[in-house]
Amino acid sequence: MVASSKLLTLFIIPMVTGTISIVSSSSLMFCILVYSQIKLKRVVRRILFMFCIYDCIYSLGSALSIFLTPEWTSKYALGNLITCDIQGAMVQIGFAGSAFYTLSLAIYYVAIIKFNRKEKDISNKLFEYILHSIPNSFAIISGIFLAVKRQYGPLAENHACWLGIHPRNCLTDPDVECERGSHMTIIEYAKWVFVIPFMLIYFLVFCTMMIACHHVIIQKRKADKWRMQTAGRDLSKSSFCCFVQRKKSGTLQEFIQEPVSSLSPAQTKFMRMQQALSKKSIASGEENTCILFGASTSRSGTKQDPLAFNVHQVKKKIRRESMLDHDAPIVLSSFNSDDRPLRSSRKSSRRREMASRDEKIAITQCILYISSFLLCWIFALIARIYGITGNPAPFEVVLLSRIFNPLQGFFFILVYSRPHVKAIQKSDPELKWFQAFVIAFKAGGDNDFGGNQLEVVDENGIDVPRLRDSERERRQEIVRQQYKRRSVSYRSTYNSRSYSNIEGKESDMSEIDFAVVDGTTIKEFELELAHVAKNDTDVEAIMLPKKDKDKIDDIVV
Fold first, then answer.
1. Residues 385-419 pLDDT 10s
2. Which UniProt keywords apply (predicted)?
3. Domains in the chain, ordered, with CATH?
4. How far apart are CA 232 and CA 250, in angstroms?
């Protein structure tokens, strides 16, 4: 009774898990082809799509085991030798194709993460053809070859058809001829079409995961080292500035007489030049000196006097260093029209943040894809090794193999939708996981930013963000309100200039739109409009310079 229940379990579980995997892979293909605007225009989409095809083939063969396995192998089986050949071909083609496409996916992510390859570099070269040609050629050729050689037979221990022997007593009885396979041919074919390729794939996929993890560790160490250097540099600069401020009551000569090993000859000369100034000039010079010591290279001389200091060149160098070395702003001690906070470019900072975010997502996706492959195939590999060596696999190993082996498609759709679901839940924390999953599924996996943005591909094959209508209207309203609040200060600024004022009508603010530039969400609202809209009163319009008027045409409506 126990054996009968175990046997029935081994037939029923693949039907459930295989059906789940078929639905998952089919849904992923439907999502890419129907809902997505990118469709198959990206390399990773094409790899995932082909993987889903082979996974459906393999999962279908596993789910129909009870109908395809020959009836004499078990009282629950309903098939024959023809159906056994069909199942064997489906298992071999589906296994080889899905396994090799998992390797192709891992190689793709390593090229993106480790070697910084761009999407267009991979798609326009021979690299992508290799990623597709090897899985397809090996899967199709090996499946047809084994069918022609009549090597597909029932596996008594796994209750499925693959490389097997029929009848079973042909190995022990010399009078019985083996209709399917033989002991030597089964071992030889299994070694070349399963053991060696699968061990190679398993090893390479594991190595790619280690490369991704190593890259994460290296990047984290670099980030920690950068933070420590930045913190130490800022602390040293702040301590020195505070020390100089305490010397305000005295003269600069007292400070120079003290041994300061970090001062360069040029900095010492500059400080001595300041002694001729008044106390007020000395005080302001001490504040500006804090800026000079904060920079790593303050020397800006000429050919005639290499140690001379040019304050404007020094400030320019400080600004350049603050933009390239770190993101922390360098704020001058005395704020005036010339001494303003020196910050890194907002656009460059946003691009760095987006690049860092995309890299983290790619690394996480790579590790999750590979982990799902390793989990699904580790038990099947152990069971097949038992079968090839002629020893029966333990029931627990066979059971785990039948549970996890067909579920790779299910794990892949979870990994594929994970960043989109996470972004949607972040934008709307009240949504449940399944609700966010449905939204991401209907969006085709294009909304990496919580449903507010669509990634589309232009005619040059470059990903371009596109705002949704609802998000566009929301941002337009924000800009309208910001412009109305700022119009008073602009009016006072332009009234001091020689621009002529004219009476104008209320402007149609609904025509304001945004331009998408190089991956940024919207174009910065830097242009000042020519009219200001108010409730029912006449508006005193302010004319803009001609160069700003010409830029208005750049706004996309």
1. 786 676 778 888 888 988 998 999 999 999 999 98
2. Membrane, Transmembrane, Transmembrane helix
3. 2-220+369-436 (1.20.1070.10), 229-348 (no CATH), 469-554 (no CATH)
4. 28
